[in-house]
Amino acid sequence: MSDRPGEANVRMSAFSAEAMKRAAARAALESVTHGMRLGLGSGSTAAHFVDLLGARVREGLEVICVPTSERTRAQAESLGISLSTLDETPQLDLTVDGADEFDAALRLIKGGGGALLREKIVAAASTRMFVIADATKEVRTLGAFPLPVEIDRFGARSTMLHIERVARGLGLIGPLTMRDAEPGERFITDGGHYIVDCAFGAIDDADALAARLSAIPGVVDHGLFIGLATAIFIAGAEGVRILGNISGDPL
What we know:
The structure is a single chain. By secondary structure, the chain is an alpha/beta fold. The chain has two domains: 14-139 and 226-241, Rossmann fold, CATH 3.40.50; 147-220, ACT domain (Alpha-Beta Plaits, 2-Layer Sandwich), CATH 3.30.70. It has helices at residues 14-29, 44-58, 70-78, 116-124, 156-169, 206-214, and strands at residues 37-40, 64-67, 92-97, 101-102, 108-109, 126-134, 147-151, 176-178, 180-182, 185-186, 194-198, 219-222, 224-225, 231-236, 239-244. A six-stranded mixed β-sheet has the order 2-1-3-6-14-15. It has a four-stranded antiparallel β-sheet with strand order 8-11-7-12, with helices on one face. α1 packs across α2 (44-58). The radius of gyration is 18 Å and the shape is globular. The two termini are 23 Å apart.
């Protein structure tokens, strides 16, 4: 377990890291059955799951899927996966997605790819959420990965100042950076919003921070996913282990 992304398994090659992501995706795919309604996550690890799911679909598996980003939609369409929307399919059986960090309580930081709002909406519409990750994403305390916060473009600077005040009230002090797509060009989410990356460091009370950020009018949503993940598939050098409960029933 690491307090910094990449601290564990520092000798892991780029190839083996991708192999571990794929191993976690393959393990999660074992729970997918005929007729399921699935949420498809975004990011490099989720892309492995979508790729493997596409192979199963070509073999005859029938599922209906809701993507969490336009990039995931394009990948799934290219693989012949049947797609829907949450308006057409408002309740899902399972969402499979990656994470930028997770802790032992199944709390997550997500949003490194900028799709946190749709990822959270889709996860909340699902009976279960499986997170797939390599072992470097496991931390004792969330916060080494800067926390993404999605904000409305109107009054963005004012909203950033409000975020700073809220964080300071919880003893969290660190730079807030407006995310750029490239130098001089703001990153815009699929929903048309900005992303602020908050380098607070260790977040000792993630639940309190989540609640206070959600109360800020200019905040659309934040990358703290609390109470959504039911199981995390963690791929390491010794194989895949599962944190949580794949059935979704109370332990």
